[in-house]
Design a protein that fits this description.
Strand content of chain B: 5-15%
Mean pLDDT of chain A: 96
Strand order of the largest sheet of chain B: 1-4
Radius of gyration of chain A: 19 Å
Mean pLDDT of chain B: 82
CATH class of chain A: Alpha Beta
CATH topology of the domain at 8-66 in chain B: Alpha-Beta Plaits
Low-confidence stretches of chain A: none
Oligomer: heterodimer
Number of domains of chain A: 1
CATH superfamily of chain A: Thiamin diphosphate (ThDP)-binding fold, Pyr/PP domains
Helix content of chain A: 40-55%
Structural class of chain B: alpha+beta
Number of strands of chain A: 10
Shape of chain A: globular
Order of helices and strands of chain A: HEHEHEHHEEEHEHEHHEHHEH
Low-confidence stretches of chain B: 74-86
CATH architecture of chain A: 3-Layer(aba) Sandwich
Chain lengths: 274, 86
């Protein structure tokens, strides 16, 4: 494993994330996965939307696009269409992906376009001071849920799977080695890869829910994580509040830019024969 | 790098004092210093498990030596491979 500092724009460090924020751990996993994959740094594009997680693009030394809220995937789709040779990585948060960008997520998954998406899920809108997001568990507290969240969160991996993503996995900041493995497999996978990385927000989510400081929140991730195999034998009530980690989908389906290139090739040949 | 030098280097300028590395070091190599940052107090005890480096959210910890074989970022979890639980 090489030194990942060569992938950082060190002149922008230290980064803006709070002490103990899981996002730095997850970004480290992304950089290690890219390093292990041996990708050409100049042929990788990292694209993000808006939010704490999306600040990641500022710190990494690849081709980067820091776009508008929820729209990382449309920008990534556009780039992939004109530069199918590039490795496209989307780094995004739970608010960015599951709320304002939810529609883009399902359609990118449906098309099976070759983009690796890593969702930094800290269950809250951290940048704007801790409002609840579509990923805040029921009855947990947030700035805008002072009596506990009434809504149910998405199972984001189930959503991505149902929408047609061809590689889907979930891990946590605590399980950083497993997370790195899944991101690596997502990078190697041809098609839409979706990796949910459970993160910790000690500043807003942790404090509001009395989960303690960052080390205690990592312990919480450890204690509450179960594998897909373990989850199979559990009642729905037992699974509540648990993080199910593992690989949910890994299948081969025609990839969108390849299918598109085939169409262009076919039409080109038809034009020549006329 | 001579073997007697600390294999763990903390970049204090980037460290935000979150204590994650201190908590997940199985050998108590790291401790909080007067500035509230992580610092190496027992370099000789380090077993090169990489927990501190992998779990540092601030890219502030670097190992200067690695195990020839065994641990890497692609082995499974911190708990399983690094003995990282307290």
């Amino acid at each position: 494993m090489g030194d990942i500092h060569r992938y950082l724009r060190e002149y922008y460090m230290p980064h803006i994330w709070c002490p103990g924020c899981g996002h730095g751990i997850i970004l480290g996993a992304v950089l290690r996965a890219i390093d292990i994959a041996g990708l050409d740094q100049n042929n990788v594009a990292v694209i993000s939307g808006i939010g704490c997680a999306s600040r990641a693009t500022g710190y990494v030394d690849f081709c980067t696009l820091h776009t508008t809220h929820g729209r990382a995937l449309p920008f990534a789709t556009g780039l992939k269409m004109v530069r199918p040779d590039m490795k496209i990585v989307v780094l995004t948060g739970d608010g960015d992906t599951a709320a304002i960008g939810g529609n883009h997520l399902i359609h990118a998954a449906r098309r099976n376009i070759d983009i690796t998406t890593v969702v930094f899920n800290n269950s809250v809108y951290g940048m704007t001071s801790g409002q609840y997001s579509p990923m805040t568990p029921t009855s947990r507290f947030a700035t805008t849920a002072p009596y506990g969240n009434l809504e149910r969160p998405f199972d984001l991996c189930a959503l991505a799977s149902a929408a047609g993503a061809t590689y889907v996995a979930r891990s946590t900041a605590y399980h950083v080695r497993q997370l790195t493995t899944y991101i690596g497999r997502g990078l190697a996978h041809k098609g839409f890869s979706f990796i949910e990385a459970v993160s910790q927000c000690p500043t807003y989510y942790g404090r509001r829910n009395r989960l303690g400081a960052a080390p205690a929140m990592l312990e919480w991730q450890k204690r509450n994580s179960i594998s897909i195999e373990q989850a199979k034998d559990m009642e729905p009530a037992e699974r509540e509040d648990k993080i199910v980690t593992g690989e949910f989908v890994n299948q081969t389906v025609p990839e969108y830019t390849e299918v598109y290139a085939q169409l262009i090739g076919r039409l080109g040949r038809q034009g020549e024969s006329r | 790098m001579p073997e007697d030098k600390a294999p763990v280097v903390v970049n204090e300028a980037w460290c935000k004092g979150c204590d994650i590395c201190i908590n997940y070091c199985p050998k108590k190599v790291l401790a909080r210093n007067a500035a509230g940052k992580a610092s190496v107090v027992k370099p000789e005890a380090c077993i090169l498990c990489e927990n501190c480096e992998l779990l540092c959210p601030d890219f502030a910890i670097t190992l200067t030596r690695r195990r020839a074989k065994g641990l890497s970022a692609t082995s499974t979890s911190v708990a399983q491979k690094g003995g990282g639980s307290r």
